[in-house]
Design brief:
Layout: H1 7-14, E1 27-31, E2 34-40, E3 47-55, E4 63-67, E5 75-80, E6 89-96, E7 101-103, E8 106-107, E9 110-111, E10 121-124, E11 135-138, E12 153-154, E13 189-191, E14 197-199, E15 217-219, E16 225-228, E17 237-243, E18 248-255, E19 259-262, E20 271-279, E21 282-291
Parallel strand pairs: 1-9
Antiparallel strand pairs: 1-2, 2-5, 3-4, 3-6, 6-7, 8-12, 10-11, 13-14, 15-16, 16-19, 17-18, 17-20, 20-21
């Protein structure tokens, strides 16, 4: 079970409050085998979500390992209790009010050395029968071997591999099946060209663009939400998501990647969700998707 700590608790333990980087830069330190990712938030915009990600590569294959409870705190951080490798790359995904988002630069942990030992003094009595003063002999400070590896900060850039676009906590159950509709109809399974499976219900929604299921926004085998928008880098796409009661959830104001995965944890609960897809401010599709409950067969 992962432990989420606020920045104040983490950094008070380390005594390094002044060493934090300001977003989008981050500070990554290895403290006794635990990796601590910390930062300071000075954005004027309201920050909605901050997810921490890690990878063996500095530019691709990042996966989300957790998120902070209060992303708007000025000082914040995350503790990776048991990393598979102590020199992995870390970065954060930052989502703002209004739908904008960015990735921080990737960084490797820098080993945090324990605080230096205080200088001790050794007292020896010269002659107990003479009222001589005690001779204080300072001991030499033990030598410290500095095996602190250099921090390698590399830009996280736009990734080309579709697997690199994961922006939220990984799904736990990849074998969950979608429950049937109210009419107990069998749920058909369709596999797309990108290898993801779109499990849908035969019901269709009214909207513009295409029938249900959407060919642009749909669920994968593990029920994460896939956004497949060819030429998104030179077109202005935006997406608004709603729950089954048509209550607004969040918006991606400017989608720049052709292929993006939004993990289902961002939708807060299972059920039907509606979306509106816009191109240059004009709605080109209105459709829906279904996310089942965790562990349901």
């Amino acid at each position: 079970m992962r432990i989420y700590l606020t920045l104040a608790i983490s950094l008070l333990a380390l005594g390094n409050l002044d060493a934090q980087s300001i977003l989008p830069s981050i500070t990554v330190k290895n403290f006794s085998g635990k990796i601590i990712v910390s930062w300071r938030n000075q954005y004027p915009l309201e920050v909605k979500v901050i997810n921490v990600q890690r990878s063996f590569d500095s530019l691709k294959n990042f996966s989300t390992i957790g998120s902070v409870l209060n992303p708007q705190n000025e000082e914040n951080g995350f503790v990776d209790e048991a990393p598979p490798y102590n020199k992995m790359y870390y970065r954060v995904f930052i989502s703002f009010e209004g739908g904008d988002y960015i990735f921080s630069e990737s960084a490797r942990p820098v080993k945090e050395l324990p605080p230096p030992q205080p200088l001790y003094t050794q007292e020896s009595v010269v002659d107990p029968f003479k009222k001589a003063d005690l001779v204080k002999q300072p001991l030499k400070e033990p030598s410290k071997k500095n095996d602190e590896p250099p921090a390698e900060d590399k830009k996280a850039g736009v990734m080309k591999n579709p697997k690199d676009k994961k922006a939220v906590v990984p799904a736990r159950d990849k074998n969950a099946k979608q429950p049937g509709t109210k009419k107990n109809k069998t749920v058909p399974s369709t596999e797309t060209t990108d290898g993801t499976e779109n499990k849908t219900s035969p019901e269709e929604t009214t909207g513009e663009g295409s029938g249900y299921p959407s060919k642009r926004i749909y669920t994968s085998r593990d029920y994460n939400v896939v956004i497949n928008l060819p030429h998104a880098d030179n077109r202005r796409y935006s997406i608004r998501f709603f729950d089954e009661e048509n209550k607004f959830l969040f918006e991606l104001n400017r989608v720049r990647e052709n292929y993006l995965i939004i993990e289902k944890v961002n939708f807060l609960h299972a059920g039907w969700f509606y979306f509106e897809l816009f191109e240059n401010g004009k709605m080109i599709e209105k459709n829906k998707l279904f996310i089942p409950k965790e562990g349901r067969n």
